[in-house]
Amino acid sequence: MSAIKLKHGxxxxxxDGEKALFLRNAGDTKFPNLEVVQEVRQDNPPTREQGSxxxxxxxxxxxxxxxxxxxxxxxxxxxxxxxDELAERLYKLAHRGSFDEIILIAxxxxxxxxxxxxxxxxxxxxxxxxxxxxxxxxxFEIEALLRAA
Length: 149
Hints:
Layout: E1 11-15, E2 19-25, E3 34-41, H1 47-50, E4 57-59, E5 66-68, H2 74-95, E6 102-105, H3 108-117, H4 120-123, E7 126-130, H5 139-148
Parallel strand pairs: 1-6, 6-7
Antiparallel strand pairs: 1-2, 2-3, 4-5
Helix pairs in contact: 2-3
């Protein structure tokens, strides 16, 4: 991966499956100054708190054996749904001309789900993708990590 250039005005989206932070560089490449533009949250409790029944079972055919059906991972489904919502939000922002370039930072699962949902207008403006979870870091820590990248 080539060095990340934090040009003036570049946007950075730091997300996970429940929270997203939209930042804009008000500084320049040498002295970045990331400012929070928008914060988005989604309530996504663990699967054990979302599921209602125990996993189903099915008959294995003519024998008396029954097999369990894998339990639905509601937490993961919500993360993927949130990634779709973020992709839609990015499309609206790009369409309005809010940013010319953006860096996406998210865990691999969220980044992959979002990449599939990104509109061409947004994907053309993505200058870098970083597969990491940084949503619990302070803005100055994200700034330092990006400068080091």
